[in-house]
From TrEMBL:
It holds the Pfam family CDC24_OB2. Signal peptide: none annotated. This is Uncharacterized protein. It comes from the Eukaryota. Residues 23-136, 256-329 form the Cell division control protein 24 OB domain.
Amino acid sequence: MMERIKLLSLYSTNKFVMLSLCRYYDLVDPPNGILKKAREIFLTGCYLRTAKEGCGSPRLLPTEYLVILLDEDLDDDAILIGAQFCSDSFSSISHAGVKNGVSYSLYARIESITSLEILEQCGGLQRKQITLVDNDGVKLRFLLWNEQVILANLFSVGSMLALDRPYIAIAAESALETSDEFCLEYGTATQLYLVPFVQHEEQVCLSSTQNRTQGSKLHAAADPTQGPKVSQVSLPCDSQGSIDFSNYPFQLFVADLHGKMTGISLYGVVRDVFRERETAGVIFLLKLEDSTGSIWAKLHFSQSWSLGRVSVGHTAYISGLTCSKTKQDR
């Protein structure tokens, strides 16, 4: 019998490519096929057959590592999630159901993704462990083995993962040392859907660094009528709503600081430094001054620190600071 072949046209970065579908026929077939025009998907583990190697357009060879993106704000996706994935929970998985081949559809939040490791007791197999938490607060591990571990690159902590027909392993019967009763694995019939975690961002106005450094002289000479420029940037916020500067290379100045900032870095001259005496921990207060002003930085140390290493007049660079306002609005 001749095997049927379906091609899916993909559009990314201004390029079209055809994907040969194998195990995903049911996702394309009408009337309930979810792979429709404008649907976003993640693909990995792909091989490209170029036009030189055959006739027609470039084509991605079949890959089983396909993740369909869902948006809970879209009616069709919300209906799909509610109808297909909200009837089962981690607590509904039973030994009888597993042994009788019951198919489960599960929906949970990604709590953590472990780093790649080698399990010597399992013959040197590679493993990725993804900890999932369902709506009832029950945790379950989703394991990826060997070539499957590349799927973890498509996930992020905080995203919601929908697993249709995952393979359910009984932990007591596996080679893993775990207290869990069950663990999930990526089986031959498993299909994954992802609702990506949208990180909240905040628009922050920051004065241009170049206007306050040596480069400001060149800028002023080019256009002496313009004052300091202000740049608006979108920065991610952490779970407490603080703006996270840890991955943003903009040099901040004292005048740029305000409450609810984290991961910031300051560079300036030390004007004063002393240790708090009436505290249990090792805490130093350091007054740092730049061209826009000065500010006190409270430094917490896990062990003793020598005051003589930094003294008044030294130029210091401090990273990983958090900025908050006091009750006196300082």
